[in-house]
UniProtKB/TrEMBL annotation:
GO terms for molecular function: undecaprenyl-diphosphatase activity. This is Bacitracin transport permease bcrc. PANTHER family: AT30094P, SPHINGOSINE-1-PHOSPHATE PHOSPHOHYDROLASE. InterPro entries: PAP2/HPO (IPR000326), PAP2/HPO_sf (IPR036938), UPP_Pase (IPR033879). The keyword Membrane applies. Pfam families: PAP2 (PF01569). It comes from Brevibacillus borstelensis AK1. One of its GO terms (cellular component) is plasma membrane.
């Protein structure tokens, strides 16, 4: 069996899960379409805890996503294929999607770059975020809009970008200066509550 045939077989095995287990379809759609709102909410919660560590983590996550997305766009210039539902027959398609280059998966890039950034800083719940990233990636195959190679490449780019960002961003003086300036402005607009000393 060639790599291309194996690749299609793996896609079919994951995509056909919904045909055999219909209860998985709404779960796959939720992860594929709406989990990004949960991710955005998580980033906002981390940011507004007003913890310097959490805020630097969110900045690293954003930087990682930008870097990974650049890598993804560059890769897309060298390799091109349309979504599975546009090429293969009998694809279990659960969401609407434009037909364009599906390589690599932008959703996977987003979730792996951000969730790995969380994992590197906050290891306890970071594993939960990693599980979310994996579920989102698999869901993109289950709903019929990506091949395994799309999500695998997106995951690789996201992971590498998160590692680079984790190492590089805290060393950038201008990032620290911008964060300090933001916190001064925020402190004037939204003063932090003083902790009570009464028992």
């Amino acid at each position: 069996m060639s790599f291309a045939e194996l690749h299609i077989e793996v896609f079919r095995w994951i995509n056909d899960l919904g045909k055999h287990y219909a209860a998985l379809d709404p779960i796959a759609v939720f992860f594929a379409e709406y989990m990004m709102y949960v991710l955005a909410a998580g980033m906002l919660v981390y940011w507004f805890t007003r913890s310097n560590q959490n805020r630097m983590m969110v900045i690293q996550a954003v930087a990682a996503f930008v870097l990974a997305e650049i890598l993804g766009k560059l890769a897309g210039q060298f390799y091109f294929h349309n979504q599975p539902f546009a090429v293969l027959s009998d694809v279990h398609t659960l969401i609407e999607h434009d037909i364009d280059n599906s390589f690599p998966s932008d959703h996977t890039i987003l979730f792996f770059s951000v969730c790995i950034s969380f994992l590197l800083v906050r290891k306890k719940e970071g594993w939960l975020w990693l599980a979310v990233a994996i579920c989102v990636s698999l869901s993109r195959i289950m709903v019929g809009v990506h091949y395994p190679i799309d999500v695998a490449t997106g995951a690789l780019f996201g992971w590498l970008a998160a590692l680079v960002s984790y190492w590089a961003v805290p060393k950038l003086t201008f990032i620290k200066q911008l964060l300090s300036f933001y916190e001064k402005v925020e402190g004037r607009i939204l003063p932090a509550k003083k902790k009570s000393t009464n028992f």
